[in-house]
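<discrete_fold_record>
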Amino acid sequence: MQSPGTQSRIQICIGALLVFAACSNTTVGRRSGLIAGSTDLIDFGDVVIDSPAPKKILTFLNKGDRDVTLSNAQGDNLGGIFQVTIDHSTINPQGDAVVSITFQPSGNRDYATTITFPNDSENESTFTLALKGRGITGDPCGGVICNDPPAAVCSDTQTSRSFNPAGACDRGRCNYVPIDTKCPNGCNNTSGFCAGDICAGKSCNTPPGAVCLNGNSHQYTSSGTCTAGSCVYGATDVACPNGCNNANGLCNGDPCTGVVCNYPPNACYKGVGTCNGGTCTYLLNDGVSCNDNDPCTDNDACTGGSCHGTAKACGAQAPVCVNQDTLRVFSGGQCGSGICSTPYNDQYCSLGCQNGACITCPNNCITGDDCTRGQCQRYYGCIYDASQNDGNRCVASSADCREGQCNGGQCLSVEGARCQARVHSGFCTDVRPGYCDSSGRCTPDTQGSQFACTYTRCPSGFCINICDGIEVCSDWF
């Protein structure tokens, strides 16, 4: 039988063992592998058919505390269009695995597929990756420079095979023509050259600098071949559309790169120009409205790259009488600051000013009329008084009664003055004495017998059997 103290110590020990066991169960846990991919989509974009296959990388990272085993990719690689390679399948904790994917299109079309990567991670046991790309037709050799030939090798114990440093591109790959040289002393497998050759061990990797030749950049390959102890480098002429820089032998860059031509000289040029040789040129914008900043022009328009307007019309003003002695004459209108002004000159009128003109007395008021006389008066001009010459002799306008007398400014034939009247009868004209009336008509006194011949020429001064009576020749025959 145990004492009470012994029983207490046994209970304490049993409790301690239970606590230790409980602590041990909570401390010991299960380890896990956690996988993470760098991307779930790879897009190769446009790839030229038959060009070297581009490669893209997918990286898997193990973020857990145990190894993760990665299986080979599964899915449709479209008959080898997409090639997938894993560098290693076991990913250590905090380690990574690199997956290389290449895209080699065989046709001019779009390609897309999905592949999976089975693994034993706890978080993503099947990782899914989408692949896409497009095959396009193009020159696979565009931009490819073949100037890096393989190193020389011994094709057999007595033959050194080197390669022409200037290669040729075929389907995006460089091919170099092999040059076989017989080695009398055998071929050195280390250098690939003939043993005892002065080129053995000689490195040809310091080519001459580029030079400008015929407007092109004459560039040498980065590595050459040794011939008779001297390095020979291949050369390529690169066309220089913007000229060759003689300082370094390389092509000049495009001077229009980065140049934006949207700042025309003024509004009389098109808003967008073109760059040529680094300089912007703009087309004319003739005919469009503009502002030449001249307030004295109207209808401003672009012509030949400049803004021009039509001079503002400032018409001349008609002369005016400032007062009864002064005439104001205006010259052509002038524009200043957009406002028309008309310069003028005041003239003194010796006879006075009336109706916008100086009063004048033309020809001293002499009309050439025997019955009218004028007098020049200030402020009135010529004043004519027809009554001043009444009764004076004058020449009347009548053809038969020329003797006249002035009456009320008119020259009237003198009544009762003698005249020669003409009376027509048949083929003859009767000439008779008569008298004039005031209208200038000649009235015959009596019926006479003297006639004038009108239709027949007069031989010896007499008419022939035409008129009755005594016949005389008229003056107009």
The first strand starts at residue 35 and ends at 37. The radius of gyration is 65 Å. Helices lie at 4-27.
